[in-house]
Amino acid sequence: MTNIPAAEDAWANDTDPEKAPDKDAAETGAQSVPAPVPAPAQASKETGEDGPGFLLSTADVVALINDRTAEQLSVSTFRTLVSHDQAPQPLSWGKTPVWAFATVEDWISEMFASGSFTMPEPDTDGEEEPGEEAKEPELIFGSTAQWVETFLAPMYRRDIAPNGAGALVWCPSWWMHSEAVIRLEALWRAWEHLRLDGKTGVSVFMKDHLDHHMAVLMDGKGPFDGCSMDLGHKPEHEGLRPLPVVPAPAELFPDVRTANTETKDDNDE
Question: Structural domain of residue 99, as residue ranges?
Fold first, then answer.
C-alpha cells in the first residue's frame, strides 16, 4: 500500500481549498495564502503537455464521478478508495490534494470496463413509455349545450332589445341555427383547451375566440337576424336564406378522398 504523507491534514483542508486555515497564519495574524501546486518537470503523461493539465479537487473528482456513473459516491468513499490504492493518487497532497482531469477520466473508463461502475439510468421523467398515448384531459362540460347554458349564458350578459330591434340580437333557440351550433361548438372546445393554460389561456380565449364569435352571432345582420328575446326563434324559411350556389364542374374539383385511395392502392402494389 502506498504511503500517503500527511493524508489526514490534506483531507481536512480539501473541502474548500481557498478557505483552508493556515496554522502559522492564525498564530501570527498574517493572511493565509494557498500553497502553489508544483508542476512535474517532465511532460505530463496524461496530457502530453508541459504540465498536469486541468486540475480537480476532491469535490470536483466526486462530482465528475457522480455525473458520469450511477454509483453516486460520497467524498468519504472516494477518500477510502484513494487510501487503499483503489483510485488514482493525487498529483500533490500539499494543503489540498489535486488530480489531473485526464487521469480521473482514464480511471473512470477502467472502472466501467471492469464493471465496478455502471452507466446512470436515462432520465425519463415526463416522457411517454413506448406505445403509451398521452391521456386527454377530462372535459369540464359534456356538450356544447351544457357549456352554453351553464357557463356562457350566465357569464356573457348584454343589453339586448326584447323585440330584436336593437344592435344586438340573440335567439334563445340558438341550437336551431346551424351556424350558431358550429361557432358555439368551436367556442366550447377552445375554452376546454385554453383553460389548461394557467397563464394567458383565459385571456387568449376571450380576445381571440369569444369576442370574435359572439360579435358575429349577435350582430343584427348575423345568423339570429329576425329572432328576438321575447318572440324567440324565427323559422329559417322566414328568415335568412342559404347562399345561392351554382354547382361547379366536377373536373375542377376532383374528390380527393378517391384520389388518396387510388394512390394508396398503387403504393401497396
Answer: 7-32+40-114
